[in-house]
Amino acid sequence: MEQLFRNRKLNVSVRTVKSGEEVLFYAKDVAEVLRYANPRKAIRTHVWSKNKTTLDEFKRRTESVLLCGNQPGTALLYEQGLYQLIFSSKLPIAEAFQDWVVTDVLPSIRKTGSYKLPESESLYG
């Protein structure tokens, strides 16, 4: 199941995909949030192969995931890959983004299966 997370305070949006207990982050979204000048290069340079996969690979391994409108080669990050990109960034946004993901997003997904936006926030407003 694909989900979009937005943090208006940080002015960031990141897509994730979940299957069972596994949560993966769209690598390009994360690299752009962290303001890497070249997201593809950042992903290739900073994230080990075992900590990322492609949308195509992920679809092959999972049966009930509905994903549409994305290229098969789209890079997805496992949680460890997410941390590798965050820790490689030297910008202040990296610390704030990491705090939000680790404190709010991931615990919520693990407990409830999703992340609820604060009621005052809207994805479309």
Describe, in plain words, how this protein is organized in 3D.
α1 packs across α2. The C terminus is likely disordered. This protein is 42% helix and 20% strand. It contains 5 helices and 5 strands. Strands 1-2-3-5-4 form a 5-stranded antiparallel beta sheet. With 125 residues, the chain is of the alpha+beta class. It has one domain. InterPro entries: BRO_N_domain (IPR003497). Pfam families: Bro-N (PF02498).
**Portion of residues within helices:** 40-55%
What string, H for helix and E for strand, traces the elements in order?
EEEHHEHEHH
Overall pLDDT score: 81
Rg for CA atoms? 14 Å
Strands ordered across the widest β-sheet: 1-2-3-5-4
Choose one word for the global shape.
globular
* Terminal-residue CA separation: 23 Å
Number of helices: 5
Number of domains: 1
Largest sheet: 5 strands, antiparallel
Q: pLDDT below 50 for ≥5 consecutive residues: which ranges? A: 119-125
What structural class do you assign from the helix and strand content? alpha+beta
Count of extended strands: 5
Pfam families: Bro-N (PF02498)
Sequence-ordered SSE layout with sheet pairings:
Blueprint lengths: L1 E6 L4 E8 L2 E5 H7 L5 H8 L5 E3 H7 L13 E3 L1 H10 L3 H21 L13
Antiparallel strand pairs: 1-2, 2-3, 3-5, 4-5
